[in-house]
Structures are given as structure tokens and as C-alpha cells.
Amino acid sequence: xxxxxxxxxxxxxxxxxxxxxxxxxxxxxxxxxxxxxxxxxxxxxxxxxxxxxxxxxxxxxxxxxxxxxxxxxxxxxxxxxxxxxxxxxxxxxxxxxxxxxxxxxxxxxxxxxxxxxxxxxxxxxxxxxxxxxxxxxxxxxxxxxxxxxxxxxxxxxxxxxxxxxxxxxxxxxxxxxxxxxxxxxxxxxxxxxxxxxxxxxxxxxxxxxxxxxxxxxxxxxxxxxxxxxxxxxxxxxxxxxxxxxxxxxxxxxxxxxxxxxxxxxxxxxxxxxxxxxxxxxxxxxxxxxxxxxxxxxxxxxxxxxxxxxxxxxxxxxxxxxxxxxxxxxxxxxxxxxxxxxxxxxxxxxxxxxxxxxxxxxxxxxxxxxxxxxxxxxxxxxxxxxxxxxxxxxxxxxxxxxxxxxxxxxxxxxxxxxxxxxxxxxxxxxxxxxxxxxxxxxxxxxxxxxxxxxxxxxxxxxxxxxxxxxxxxxxxxxxxxxxxxxxxxxxxxxxxxxxxxxxxxxxxxxxxxxxxxxxxxxxxxxxxxxxxxxxxxxxxxxxxxxxxxxxxxxxxxxxxxxxxxxxxxxxxxxxxxxxxxxxxxxxxxxxxxxxxxxxxxxxxxxxxxxxxxxxxxxxxxxxxxxxxxxxxxxxxxxxxxxxxxx
Length: 645
Prior knowledge:
The relative contact order is 0.11. The chain is α/β, with parallel strands linked by helices. It is built from eleven helices and 28 strands. It has helices at residues 2-18, 42-48, 61-64, 85-94, 134-144, 167-181, 213-217, 219-229, 294-304, 325-343, 527-530; strands at residues 52-56, 99-105, 148-153, 188-191, 196-199, 206-209, 234-237, 244-246, 256-257, 262-263, 266-267, 269-275, 310-314, 351-354, 386-404, 412-421, 424-429, 438-439, 463-483, 489-495, 521-524, 542-544, 549-567, 578-586, 593-599, 610-629, 635-637, 639-644. β5 (196-199) and β6 form a beta hairpin. α9 (294-304) crosses α10. It is 18% helix and 30% strand.
């Protein structure tokens, strides 16, 4: 009882300090260290402690097999006959998630609530005879299950005739107002960075570019409006004017470590995002065999939350409104692994002795007391402070977690952890070096090889260092090797990474139905390089410095072709990535049929394999055209696959 009472006292005093009331510190023998640098708001602190939550992409793109709708899609397509928001929310919560963000409007401009801002909305659909409201159903389900609800509202609108002009701002501000007024508390609102391009635009069918997004959308006004409507809402994006920003990868990791939650004179937190399925953000036919494994999801978690960012993990309902069973299975196994990881802290209540202490209220035992608000601080003149942690019995662990008391600012630049092994100190987390960083590759899957055995740089809200080999010991030493101000460390934890005890069906990428390229011949532009697109090696590619361009394939025998897959270059560059394509088939090599044409959206941020289904048709020959490309007059394909029925 006494220990619990003491913890509540510390929490209450911490709250007083945050509010600027330092007089309560007379209870102890000294005041806490002074705040350093930009400080997080109370909302940012709570948001960071959520750690991870769901993204839900669900709209007209679900029915068109697209990632970015053009804006001319008929609302009549939307009819999710089995949609059950409560079932989806319960799935997320059971997995250990703390909230969800729903894409109320994507780039195609279709609004999934009965808005007064545009006719392109849910009331024009056959679902519930035009009386449905997806936003309402998700918001109500979240409120019922004590689950945080947020929303994504695309700034780009490829449907609206006024987009790119001043008149669009009235439309967009109206949509923001409706979402933040009519659906209860919103914990986060998302504004991504899409800034225009080709679109329907009320029938104009043209390209429109807004130039500077901050100026066009007037994000200063948007932020002020949101603060007035929902002051506790975290604002993501808004040209850096919000509370949180992108961690630099749609593959789910914080791209660079050390990670500082500081931009200029404000605290700006980081968020990593990724879909659970390799097919993309929206549901696509056949995606069940492309789900990320629980092991890869854990690596994503350790490379985002474990680096001090939050993680938003996307699961997309299908055309019936149900989550894909393979996605759910992967989520459940990973969720169980995460709960097991955090369930047992071997350092809890361990004895701790420091080289120095700032005061009684900042003693070393605060590191292991299971209270995130209490913290240890060394004396100001202790330039390389250390803490020795002694466990009651030896423990075997492979994850070390540290937290700073971020209410007083982010301070630590580098740290070291040693373990007492075989009668001597052994460094298990080496300190980060000045001027260096632990950067992960921006594209491809190579980053999965670099998750473990990282150095100790920043801590912030939390950092987890995953060791490649377990360590068994009963004594450890933490050393703060560099800090911008007196360190304020609130937690030191020792955890053990669980193994996936069950693999969900369909975690491996599907090879079933892929036609084998043995004996095929190639023509078209740079024909001598075309075979590199079929060699099962993403490091090689078909590439030519011209666009439009194409290659031709003679499969030697007639097949029933049902689709193809395009993998963009994976070397970190975007030069020559195909943004628009055309796929043609032929039985004789002379007469050609256009089987599919369209757009590969979002490749710049998410250069994953694009799988396109077509009406099954007989073909011996195919042609793939790159009709438009990112960054220059070039065309490239890292890997290309043809699917047979």
C-alpha cells in the first residue's frame, strides 16, 4: 500500500510540474531538473504511449482494384453487404491495438459519410439505400468498446471540379468541420502529402498541380480550426504544422535512428505506417497469399516503436466489408507475440545503484519501479553517469527497453549497456558515435536484415534494442555516454522476444499460377535486357532511357493469361518507375488486345509489387508499355510476372 501511495504522489507531482507548478517539490529535498528544449503537449505524451493502432483503407478503390482512384468512379459500386464495424474494432482491440484511423475520403474524392460538401458521397450508393454512414458506424463501435477513433481526409480530391482553385477550400474546410463535429472525440486526423496530378475534376480530365501545399490549403488556418473544434486531436502532417509527422517509410520503420522529436522550436513526434499486406493499402483480389508474416511484423514493430516512433498498421476490408482472413490471422499471431514480449520485465523491482543522484526523488530505484512517471537523474556534474541493476535471480533476455521522462524534454544522445558475464563486464549495446546514424535502406526488404544489434543513441519516449543472441546474467550496467542536459530516465526493462508458435495460412507470397519463363524470347525496346525482368532477382532490371517504351514477350505456347505483376526498381531511386502502363495480349504476334491500362499510384512512397488482374484470355504474346514514368524520360522494371489461370 505504501509503495502504491508513493507512486500516486509522484504522478501527481509530475502533473503539477507539467502545469508549471513547482512548489510541490518541497516534499523532497530538491526540485527536479529543469525542462530542456521543446516539450511535448499532454496530448502528444498520451499519443506516444498508444504505440500502435490500425489504419483502415475502405472505399471505392476496394471495388476497382486500384490504390489511387481517378475520381470518376461510380458511387454505385460501393455496397459492402456484410460490413460490421463492431466486428472489425473488436478484432483490432483483441490484438492489443489502441485505436484506429479510417480513410473517410481518399484521393478519388468519394466521401464515406453523408456530407453536405459534395454529391460524390455515401448517399449515392445502394448500400443501405443511401442511408448508410461508414464513419458513423466505426465511430460508434470505437466508443462502445473504449477504442480511440481517428480519421484520414485526403487533401487531394480528383473528383472535385474546384480542386486547384480557391473554391475547393470551402469544400475541404466543410469536410473537416463535419468530421470533427459530428462523430465524437477524434484522437488523430491525417493529412497526407499528395499535392495534385491527373484527375477527373468534374469532367475536365486534366492535370492540376497546386504548388506549395502549405500555401494552397492554408494549413495555419486548418490547424487553428482543428484546435477550436477538437483541442485534444493529434494533427498528422499539415506541412509540418501538426503534432506528428511521417517517419520516412511506408514499409513500417522509422528510417533513421537516432530519432529526435524536435523540429525547430517545437516537439514533433514520428509515426511509421505500413499495410499488413504486400498488395497495398486497399483490398485487392488474391491478396490472401501476400500477407506479411508475424515475424516480419515484429521486425517492423521493433524498427518503429522500438526506435521511438508510433506504428500505424493497415488492414483493409474486402468488397463485402469483411477483413481478409489471412490478414486477421497474421495480426492475431503478431498481437500475441507483442503481448508476450511486454508481459514479463525481468528488471522489475530489481535493485539499482547509481554513480550519483540529482535528489531523493530522482533515485536509481525509479528505473525499475514500474512507474513511467518517476525517473532517475544523476548529479549535474556527473558527465558519464552509470547505474548498476542487480536482479534477484539470473535472467535470460534479448531485448533492452529504455524510456526518458519526456515531459521534461528529450536529452540523451547516446548510451551503453553492459552485462556481467563470466566474471567480467561485456558490452551488449555499444554507444552510438557522434556524427553517425543507424539508417535503414529506404526501399525493398533489405532493411529486415538490419533490425538487431543496433547501437544506443537517442531514447525519447522509448527505445528497444533487440540482441541477436540472448544474454543470461543477474547484473547489468547502464551508462549515459552523451546527453544534451541532465538525463531523466524513467524505465530500464529486460524483455524476451517470443517465437511465433503458429503460422497463419498464406503468409508466403504466392507462386501458384505464375507462368515460368523457361525458353521465352523477348523483343521491343532494349530487348537484350528484357530477360532481366524475369530472372527472379530484384537487383537487376530492364531499363531504357526513353518513355513511352515497351518490351514484348513470346511465351512460345498459348496460355490463359489472368494478370501480371510489376515490381518497380528496388535500389532506392525512382528514375524510370512506371506511373502509367498498358498491358496487351496476342495469340499471333500481329493482332493485339488491350487487356489492362491504368496507373500505378503511390510508388514514390511505397514501391511494392503491383499485381493487376485481367479478364482471363488466351495469349502466346504479351506487351508491357510504360506510358508515363516518375522522374525523367526513362522506363524500368525490376521484376515482371505473368499469371496463368
